[in-house]
């Protein structure tokens, strides 16, 4: 934020020292069902995109420094909070500090919006007297554009191009500009409440609607309580399952029903590495697993909204089916690199957008058809126009399933005949047949049955390594891949088939990474860099040290089979998939042990990122990750079901 307009009192008071941000798992999530913010243990909002998940950020310190945008509100001179929690089954965050002079609570939330997004921060004195300090620095367009700030009444208004942000400052709070930051100094005593309100709106609007913070808090808590009342789960993991479903709800874009893979971008899959992707989009691949998780949890309305988003997004020529879409179904998701951002713990490049949108990933056809089948089983009717769309998708897949593609893991190298892609083509044919039989709607059922048989024979002949006795990643290869667990998850083969059992055992042994599961062979699982206590900015690591840590060397390091340099952590969803496969093959106790191990590495608020580094005991990748929480929910329900024949 630029210094406030000349002549404001106290502009030169104080100097702002940029705090060190914490580990990925140190962050909490709040949101309003259209965007989300990440807040560290130190009380700093380090990531927020407005007005949507996929909009440019106004706070990007997560991927850089304080000057790239953040808002810290905490006791003056304090470090991380002493305790934090969500209030009940909500997304209202409470953080508490206990100081030598007293204790204080900061309550952070984003009301579900009517017109504009708002971030509310309420400071409440609990005991004694505590000196507080707020440091707000806005920087629009991913930390690239500092706004001009002016004062109007009780507001500080920051404007840059099409964006404006209005900070409502409570009466009696001393506020001034220092080093481009708006600083608020004040004291809270026991029982005193001080509320700050930050509102975004288009810059051409001259005023912002007023909001009563306490009324907004009550309404927000009430809405979450009403929503959680639909929760349906009877098992020993009630809290992690419901928190995962709350997280999925938080990642849903309410106007359309689309669910983003994560609210963040460019958080690294290995510290110092180059696998830094933007996940603020909706993947078709997640569709059937997400629908299953929502329906199992009792949230039929969200499941129906997700299905409607899916149908709108994929409408059109089946040849143009994409792997991902924007939250409203947009097709243009251009990948760019933000060279002005240093990246989380110097993990570069920082990427926004995602080039995988242009890849051929044939498995998504199977995911879409499986979603429609699950919806029908749940009582969501099959409309005739949807049936026409399904027939068009199947018509395309019938003629193209034999082609190579980039696959589930979005390889940026040569196309291959991935076993998972073929298995999901089988799923498409199998579920299409089942849908036709269940609805009686007109369809070339015999052609679909013939395709199902042909794909099955092809996978068994070419995707199975007879020497090793396991399914492999792609035809002609020998690499293991956790996605081959879908041979049992999808019903492609029965769980007692020896090929299934050997594949499950091979994945379990060959892709083990400290008790967790890697995605596939061929990506080095090196030790991550960075200091245990926070960001490794300015620690003097050389390129050689980075290369030894599994990140890129002087020229980016050797390129792996997936077309990328460097390494990554264990992929958490794969660990849940293995647990599902262990249950299917009669090893429920071992599945429960694995499930418990993965749930235990969630942060103190129950949130999980994409990956885990067992060597450094830290989370990696974008946070929180919908794919991980979806897998957690589905495995928890699988474990809660009685064994067959019991």
UniProtKB/TrEMBL annotation:
Domain of life the protein comes from: Bacteria
GO biological process: carbohydrate metabolic process
GH15-like domain span: 238-636
Region (Disordered): 525-562
Signal peptide as annotated in the record: none
GO molecular function: hydrolase activity, hydrolyzing O-glycosyl compounds
Residue span, Trehalase-like N-terminal domain: 22-128
Protein's name in the database: Glucoamylase
Organism the protein comes from: Kitasatospora indigofera
Lineage of producing organism: Bacteria, Bacillati, Actinomycetota, Actinomycetes, Kitasatosporales
